Every structure is written in C-alpha cells, then in structure tokens.
Amino acid sequence: MGIFDRFKSNHESTKQEKGGQTKAVISMPWAVLIRPDQINDLLNQSHEQTVLVFKHSTRCIISSMVLRALESNADQLSGLGNWYYLDLIANRACSNQVAQQLGVIHQSPQLIILKDGAVVWEASHQSISPETILAVLTSE
C-alpha cells in the first residue's frame, strides 16, 4: 500500500469481522490538492456539485482525529459531494491560495464547503464533525 492509496477514488473493500462475517467498508473518495491553480477548477465544479475541501496538518493531533472521524463515517459522507484533501504542510502554496482566493482565514484542520462558486460554510478544529457536515448539507 502506497502513501497516497488512501486518497484514491471511492471504493468498497471488505473487512473481516469477528465471527467470520465480512462487511463492506466504504473509503472516502479523496482527490488530492497539490497545485494552487486547482482552486479555479474547484470553484467551477461547485456550480455542478458540492465541493468539500479538507485542509489537514500532518503535524497536528486534532487534525488527525478529525481526519479519522471523516474516514470512519465515509458511508454517510462520501456521497455529499466531491471531497478534496490538502496536506497543508507539503503543499503550503496551495493552502495559501485557498485562503486568499476563497477569502477564508487559514486554519488547520479546516473544512471548506463550496457551492455555486462560493464558500457556503467553513469550520475548523473540533467544529468539524460528521454530524455537523450532514446537518449543514441536508438542511438546504
């Protein structure tokens, strides 16, 4: 398993449960943001489908906990839109472009939701939860 395998397209895999039963496990359908010029593509995409950008710091335990919570709830979250993962340590220029172009203050972890070419919601740290994301996107 390569380092970026977890960010490949959404797929089902099986997990062996106690008692010999198997269960389908849904993975988050992460696309990886690595270039500042990708931000325009996200804004354009958001006219067709909700875009969710998760800015992750690989050096932050809170960020890792939020990432795990998102991935643990992939079965509920993966269909809500196009999910993007941004490692802000490895891709600082892209992270800076997100803050500048979208008009959001840099935070990490941070989740930014785009619709119709604009930010409709953003949150950071413990304010990011599967329950909150579901509430935001299903209340419309």
Describe it.
The protein has 140 residues and is of the alpha/beta class. It has a single domain, classed as Glutaredoxin (3-Layer(aba) Sandwich), CATH 3.40.30.10. It is built from 5 helices and 7 strands, in the order βββαβααβαββα. Strands 3-5-4-6-7 form a 5-stranded mixed sheet, sandwiched between helices. The protein has a two-stranded antiparallel ribbon with strand order 1-2. The radius of gyration is 15 Å and the shape is globular. The protein starts with 11 loop residues before the first strand and ends with a helix. The mean pLDDT is 88.
Question: Topology, pairings included?
Answer:
Layout: E1 12-16, E2 22-26, E3 31-32, H1 38-45, E4 51-56, H2 61-72, H3 74-77, E5 82-87, H4 92-102, E6 110-115, E7 118-124, H5 130-138
Short account of what is shown:
The chain is of the alpha/beta class. 31% of the residues lie in helices and 26% in strands.
Biggest sheet, strands in spatial order? 3-5-4-6-7
CATH class group: Alpha Beta
Main beta-sheet strand count, sense and barrel state: 5 strands, mixed
Task: Please tell me how large the radius of gyration is.
Answer: 15 Å
Write the element-wise H/E pattern from the N-terminal end onward.
EEEHEHHEHEEH
Count, helices: 5
Q: Helix/strand/pairing class, anyone? A: alpha/beta
Just name the CATH architecture.
Answer: 3-Layer(aba) Sandwich
What number of domains? 1
In CATH, the topology is named: Glutaredoxin
Indicate the proportion of strand residues: 25-35%
Instruction: Determine the CATH superfamily.
Output: Glutaredoxin
Strand runs, count: 7
Distance between the termini: 39 Å
DSSP helix fraction? 25-40%
